[in-house]
TrEMBL record:
Molecular function as annotated in GO: ferredoxin-NADP+ reductase activity; nucleotide binding
Enzyme type, top EC level: oxidoreductase
Annotated TM spans: none
This protein's record includes keyword Repeat: no
Annotated family: Belongs to the ferredoxin--NADP reductase type 1 family.
Name of the gene encoding the protein in the UniProt record: fpr_1
FAD-binding FR-type domain ranges (all copies): 5-111
Pfam families: NAD_binding_1
CDD domains (alphabetical): FNR1
GO biological process entries: cellular response to oxidative stress; heme catabolic process
Reaction catalyzed: 2 reduced [2Fe-2S]-[ferredoxin] + NADP(+) + H(+) = 2 oxidized [2Fe-2S]-[ferredoxin] + NADPH
Entry EC number(s): 1.18.1.2
Name of this protein: ferredoxin--NADP(+) reductase
Alphabetical UniProt keywords: Nucleotide-binding, Oxidoreductase
């Protein structure tokens, strides 16, 4: 590969299946020169099916699940049954190649907000990815008073990374922050097709509209104090953005920090 190539060849080291034939994560090696901010995404590539040993010709965007300080890259994906890319990515095994463009992309980063107040991270499905990278960065725990992570799915089986999230209180790298502020993180796993203990069976947009999220978190969605990130399917984003806009939430512009950041994960 020449030095002027726009991508690097990385090697798959681990594949985790969350829901067979539906949800999976892939971990690959990371080029030493690849730098990104938590919340950004990569363009990853595979060769065409007609030439599996050839150069990458199919490219898709995936947010990094891994933190910038970790020596690998990890991506979380849904399998689109008729898709050209995700079914093949799901079949990758350790030792296989996955190509990564040298430049990261995206603006779903904490730079969009002024520090302080409460950080709300609202995701549907695999939109959770960017938030995992953000929450693996100790800086976010110092920047906000409270952090509310909301993950909307259909069934409990789709709550990927749930065990890890719930175990962060025992993470040595975060122990000091948690011991000082034991209630800093609120994790709200919400399913639409299955009742979870202590959680309503509802869409995220319904819970925004009827005040359910605020009751669950014990915090108001106050545009003076709350900063909100939205990541997920376009329908959820459009409806949530409208509801939050009516309450005074809006993206930043012309260098002025806002209190709403949105990214399509589709």
């Amino acid at each position: 590969m020449t030095d002027d190539s726009k991508y690097t060849r990385q090697t798959v080291t681990h594949v985790h299946t969350w829901v067979p034939d539906k949800l999976f994560s892939v971990r690959v090696t990371r080029d030493d020169a690849y730098a990104f901010q938590p919340g950004q995404f990569a363009r990853v590539g595979l060769p065409g099916a007609e030439d599996p040993e050839g150069p990458p010709t199919l490219w898709r965007a995936y947010s990094m699940v891994s933190a910038p300080r970790q020596p690998w890259l990890e991506f979380y994906s849904i399998v689109v049954p008729e898709g050209l890319f995700s079914p093949r990515m799901a079949r990758l095994r350790p030792g296989d190649a996955l190509y990564v463009e040298k430049a990261p992309y995206g603006f779903l980063t904490l730079e969009r907000f002024a520090p302080g107040g409460d950080l709300w991270l609202l995701a549907s499905g695999t939109g959770l990815s960017a938030y995992l990278s953000i929450l693996r960065d100790p800086a976010v725990w110092r920047a906000y008073r409270r952090i509310i992570l909301v993950h909307g799915v259909r069934t409990a089986a789709e709550l990927a990374y749930r065990e890890e999230i719930e175990g962060w209180r025992n993470d040595p790298s975060l122990a000091e922050l948690f011991s000082a502020e034991p209630g800093k993180l609120t994790y709200l796993p919400i399913a639409t097709r299955e009742a979870l203990p202590g959680m309503p069976q509802a869409r995220l947009t319904t819970l925004i509209a009827d005040g359910g999220l605020e009751r669950l978190a014990g915090l108001p969605l106050d545009p003076e104090q709350a900063k909100i990130m939205l990541c997920g399917n376009p329908d959820m984003l459009a409806d949530a953005r409208k509801l939050l806009g009516e309450r005074g939430f809006k993206p930043g512009r012309r260098g002025i920090p806002g209190n709403l950041a949105v990214e399509n994960y589709w």
